């Protein structure tokens, strides 16, 4: 009986050790396999997006720079976050208290950057559709670069604020040895990371959707312009409408993947570590980082062309950065 009890502990030689979860053998194996598969594809697919936008000069547009920043955050999710999600199934944390806190700290920066980048993408599409005459003057490459830099700086400072007590004394909230628990002000995180950005995204895209529908009707009626706010007459290119639709899919997928986690936080419900609900929510959040480049592959011809050039090593040719991929 004593041997059985010891086998159920994360660290059998310590009385203060946490207990392992009891799962059928196939469940942890299936979870680890799926996590490894998603992690590998997330890294590879987002790396293709990063190389494509960085290498080909035609893709150096304000909108694509926002997609590049989003791809970087998704790439880091696959590289740094997913491999450490063993505690989705098993609460035993073998890497120490400091690594535990740093893991959540980095995850907060990366996830925060994804959320803010999505807000910036929504704002970019809002200006492109609702104020196309002034888009090129308002949304410039330099302004987008500054916005992306501020986005990452903000996420870094916000994460320090959120995890200050945990960084100051790692492991202070653990109830047993081998546990990885952090404590943050949930209400602040809920408002700053969910309610405010999601509200902004929804408001911006509702406005974009209304204008896009008006433009589609106008084009079907062979009308080249429609009157919008303040009786200003504008026209929107088909390419802008297509970009808005594609990025709208990205935003919808983002909401589907992130909403369950924050809805649980909003309802003040607790999810047991290692439970089916915890595993499902974790998979949803991480799968978002893998789905974004898949969406680009389906909707963006330039991404398919650039991936072909990358995989065939044509980008190693001289002056390959000037190749036409549009």
From TrEMBL:
GO terms for cellular component: plasma membrane. It holds the Pfam family 7tm_1. CDD domains: 7tmA_TAARs (cd15055). Keywords: Cell membrane, G-protein coupled receptor, Membrane, Receptor, Transducer, Transmembrane, Transmembrane helix. Its main location: membrane. Residues 45-296 form the G-protein coupled receptors family 1 profile domain. This is Trace amine-associated receptor 13c. The lineage of its organism: Eukaryota, Metazoa, Chordata, Craniata, Vertebrata.
């Amino acid at each position: 009986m004593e041997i059985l009890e010891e086998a159920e502990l994360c660290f059998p030689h310590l009385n203060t050790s946490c207990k392992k979860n009891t799962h059928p053998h196939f469940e942890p194996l299936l979870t680890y396999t799926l996590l490894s598969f998603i992690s590998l594809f997330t890294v590879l697919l987002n790396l293709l997006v990063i190389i494509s936008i960085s290498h080909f000069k035609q893709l150096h547009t304000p909108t694509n720079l926002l997609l590049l920043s989003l791809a970087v955050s998704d790439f880091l999710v696959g590289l740094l976050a997913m491999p450490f999600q063993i505690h989705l199934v098993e609460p035993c944390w073998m890497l120490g208290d400091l690594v535990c806190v740093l893991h959540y700290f980095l995850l907060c920066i990366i996830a925060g950057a994804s959320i803010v980048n999505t807000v910036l993408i929504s704002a970019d599409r809002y200006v492109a559709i609702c104020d196309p005459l002034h888009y090129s003057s308002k949304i410039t490459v330099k302004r987008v670069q500054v916005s992306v830099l501020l986005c990452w700086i903000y996420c870094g400072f916000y994460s320090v604020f959120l995890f200050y007590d945990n960084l100051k004394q790692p492991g202070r909230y653990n109830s047993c040895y081998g546990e990885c628990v952090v404590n943050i002000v949930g209400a602040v995180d809920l408002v700053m990371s969910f309610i405010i950005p999601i509200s902004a995204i929804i408001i911006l895209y509702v406005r974009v959707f209304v204008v896009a529908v008006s433009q589609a009707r106008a084009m079907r009626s062979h009308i080249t312009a429609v009157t919008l706010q303040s009786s200003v007459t504008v026209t929107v290119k088909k390419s802008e409408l297509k970009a808005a639709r594609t990025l709208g899919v990205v935003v919808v997928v983002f909401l589907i993947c992130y909403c369950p986690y924050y809805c649980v936080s909003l309802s003040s419900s607790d999810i047991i570590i290692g439970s089916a609900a915890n595993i499902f929510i974790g998979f949803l959040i991480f799968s978002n980082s893998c789905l974004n480049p898949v969406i680009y592959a389906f909707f963006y011809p330039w991404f398919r062309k650039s991936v072909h050039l990358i995989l065939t090593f044509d980008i190693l040719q001289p002056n390959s950065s000037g190749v036409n991929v549009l």
